[in-house]
Design goal:
The protein has 355 residues and is α/β, with parallel strands linked by helices. It has ten helices and ten strands. It is 41% helix and 18% strand. The structure holds 5'-O-[(R)-(carboxyoxy)(hydroxy)phosphoryl]adenosine (KG4) and zinc ion (ZN).
């Protein structure tokens, strides 16, 4: 039963966690969202500096809460790819320094593998391969998982990620950053059927549409047009701007598109389980929609626990634990790779990674 300390600093959350055998002994996240909210998005330079400030206290906190001494750790892990280069460096340098200091093995972790593993912090998964819908601020992908480290991407967004669409639409609606929670709150009492918004289909070169891939940039433009028209109506003395209905209609179409295409892929692949992870997987309407659809179609589903949908270090520890159990170790000189694809994650464990 290995015990690991893991660090996560790939974007705008600083996080540390101690995990033993897929059980979280302690997990802490320091969010920087308020700081970035002033600028309407993540400012990389600010993110790096805040990670430097926040990480030592977070590490101390999880070590104390878990009651685990550094000497008792089996390994130390940190997210090494992908993400903001400066932000990744803070966690990686800190993790590697601790590993060197305490003479522990170090594991660099792929952030998306962390998200995929977040579901293991909830109910046990049914046996067999499954399809994961990974929906975050930077990625919207369907990934077939045939076992630890065996990933095959079957679909992706051709433009904006779902979380990015939430963030951009929230800005159009004058709501705060991050957009997902703000839209969810605004949509709570809205009518999701009031406005019909486009489902963003992706044309195929040979004709027809791609069965699974997503496109969210047209949806964002459609919301912009709708907002302009409704604001003009309001200015002309008409109905006050119906922000709740717009937010609910937007949430509904995103949920419909994600769930329709992913359940189709599950069936086409002959799979029986659908998993959803990532920041957008925290969305209440999307969770409900997925549960309804899966139960109607006889598909088993597992959702990442709410606390582990958005960025955290517990999921990074689980991913590291899995790799560690398979014998993987990273070089202590391992650098960071801001753009590494998930399929390339094994290079993190080569004696000499190519970066
Ligand atoms: O996974 P995550 O924390 O970071 C990335 O790896 O990108 O995801 C952040 C994204 C943001 O775009 C945020 O707006 C979205 O997740 N998000 C949500 C909700 N909570 C966070 N989107 C919809 N509904 C939510 N409740
Ligand atoms: Zn993430």
């Amino acid at each position: 039963m290995p015990t690991l300390l893991a660090l996560e600093t790939s974007c705008d959350e600083s996080a540390a966690a101690v995990v033993r055998d897929q059980r979280v002994l302690a997990s802490a996240v320091a969010s920087q969202v308020e700081e970035h909210a002033r600028w309407g998005g993540v400012v990389p330079e600010i993110a790096s500096r805040r990670h430097v400030e926040a990480l030592p206290a977070l590490i101390e906190q999880v070590m104390q809460q878990s009651g685990v001494a550094f000497a008792e750790l089996d390994a130390i892990a940190a997210t090494a790819a992908p993400g903001l280069v400066g932000a990744l460096l803070v966690g990686s340098v800190t993790g590697r320094s601790l590993a060197r200091l305490y003479g522990k093995p170090f594991l660099g972790v792929h952030h998306l593998e962390g998200h995929l593993c977040s579901v293991q912090l909830g109910e046990p998964l049914p046996p067999g391969p499954y399809l994961v819908l990974l929906v975050s601020g930077g990625h919207t992908e369907m990934i077939r998982v045939d076992g630890p480290g065996c990933y095959q991407r079957l679909a992706r967004s051709r433009d904006d990620a779902a979380g990015e669409a939430f963030d951009k639409v929230a800005r159009l609606l004058g709501l705060g950053y991050p957009g997902g929670p703000a839209i969810q709150a605004a949509a709570e009492h809205g009518d999701p059927t009031r406005f019909v918004l486009p489902k963003g289909r992706v044309s195929q070169p040979g004709g027809g549409f791609h069965p699974y891939d997503f496109s969210f940039s047209g949806l964002k433009t459609a919301v912009l047009r709708l907002v302009n028209q409704l604001k003009a109506d309001e200015a002309a003395g008409g109905e006050p701007f119906p922000i709740a209905d717009v937010a609910a209609s937007f949430e509904q179409v995103v949920a419909d598109v994600l769930v329709e295409r992913t359940t189709r892929c599950v069936r086409d692949q002959g799979l029986s389980t659908l998993v959803m992870v990532g920041g957008v997987a925290a969305n209440r309407r999307l969770r409900q929609r997925l549960e309804q659809r899966c139960s109607a179609l006889g598909i088993q589903w597992r959702l990442a626990p709410l606390a582990y949908c958005t960025d955290n270090a517990a999921m990074i520890a689980v991913a590291a634990e899995q790799r560690f159990a398979a014998g993987a170790r990273s070089a202590i000189e391992l650098a960071v790779a801001p753009r590494l694809a998930l399929e390339e994650a094994p290079v993190l464990y080569e004696p000499q990674a190519p970066f």
